């Protein structure tokens, strides 16, 4: 069985300048793996409309789903919604359903729904809103692109809103063996194991702690019995 | 003055599956900013030769420099060097200079330069080696692509080796103002400020701590006096 595929597009100068460390990629990667959707590519681009449009078009054509993070707030550098609309040649306006959510929220909290905040109700025609229980201003799904906020608490809440609506595949199971040997010592037998279990993904991830080299070997697959069999063989042949 | 541009290509299933949190992107972003090179795009792809080849070709054509991370170790899933060679249609063999480094290293440490480890001496024709003071096996620069290891300690050491050899631009200066107001409250005056200082980049980054919303406003530019002037105006107009 082939799982649905996904790509992520992170939008934000602050990641590329090194000012902020992105955490949304790691969160989404873990959630998609649990849901049986294979994350195949991530791109990070700046707050630049042509860059966003080009990336969205390429990724939407290549993968089952695209998840974006960032650029949907109220300020001048929040241009993601417009760029997504342009990528699909879709009109975008302040939509009544999104405006009603914001009106109710600011009425409740005593804030003002000013012109800047009203930008957050700009939603492309035909898009479905993504619920934002943290700060109300919604994300949206247009075709196979799911547009979410960059603030991690909001991004994570939106992921939790949208993932249950998507058809997942069979979750990928994984087992890890940690060996206190360098990759170069175990690369030979590991290659043989990978040849013998072509249905599994066998990765080796070197680490270095206090000057000692070791390797985590991770075996991944959808069939638990096969993962077990490969892990047993690995433990006999490679570990000491 | 326009600074040189850069893209980064992170290669590794372990990032996309959520098993590992990438830290090389953040490190490189900070180092490039200090060096006056503008990081414009990052892509993360899996250990898949066609995906690596396509990404390298696209990024090498679009930016002054490309920096890659991951996939140059001794195991079966380390396919980056071959993929880079293929991307530029360049022959790749075990090269004497790289082999000599490894031979000396394993002689010194009592390890064995077996067939798997010898893979780490496979370097495309015409590439310049990148020094690896941590674990010796070198990276390399082929045309405008700088190929480095994924283990953070090694990646960081290789960045330190290669960056001083590249022509940098004028470093980007930045100042940050933290205000305890939501983005929506300050978006209006911030847009006016951005219009008045078109030579500067003015970003606003919302945060939420203990249920309180606030915003970091970051002004970036190459001319310190202009950044100062914009920050003074900002502090008068927006902060309370």
TrEMBL record, chains A, B:
Domain MoaB/Mog: from-to ranges: 7-169
SMART domains: MoCF_biosynth
One matching Pfam family: MoCF_biosynth
Protein name: Molybdenum cofactor synthesis domain-containing protein
Organism: Thalassovita taeanensis
